[in-house]
Design a protein that fits this description.
Largest sheet: 5 strands, antiparallel
Order of helices and strands: EEEEE
Strand order of the largest sheet: 3-2-1-4-5
CATH topology of one domain: OB fold (Dihydrolipoamide Acetyltransferase, E2P)
Helix content: under 10%
CATH architecture of one domain: Beta Barrel
CATH class of one domain: Mainly Beta
Number of strands: 5
Mean pLDDT: 82
Oligomer: single chain
Strand content: 35-45%
CATH superfamily of one domain: Nucleic acid-binding proteins
Length: 87
């Protein structure tokens, strides 16, 4: 699946992914594949599983889409990817 990061709490090493009109999807730092934290508005790919607390994202990785229609990017030039850091 693919969606955007809705919230990220660095002090808790976890956050939530947007799920359209449904309940948010929880993500933990331990499930991040190519980074150490997530930035709100970033696009990620993941596997969605159900758990005791609801929907949980696993194997979460950054999605590197060209020509993304993300409203957060505007007309800014793309930044270089730095391992472990969401830009």
């Amino acid at each position: 699946m693919q969606t955007v990061v809705k919230k990220w709490f660095r002090d808790k090493d976890s956050g939530f992914l947007d799920n359209g009109g449904g309940p948010d999807i929880m993500v933990r730092k331990a499930e991040l594949v190519n980074c150490q934290f997530l930035k709100v508005g970033a696009t990620v790919e993941f596997e969605c599983h159900t758990g005791k607390q609801g929907l949980i994202a696993k194997n979460v990785k950054l999605s590197h889409q060209k020509g993304s229609n993300s409203p957060h990017k505007g007309n800014r030039s793309p930044k270089a990817f730095r391992f472990g850091v969401m830009t």
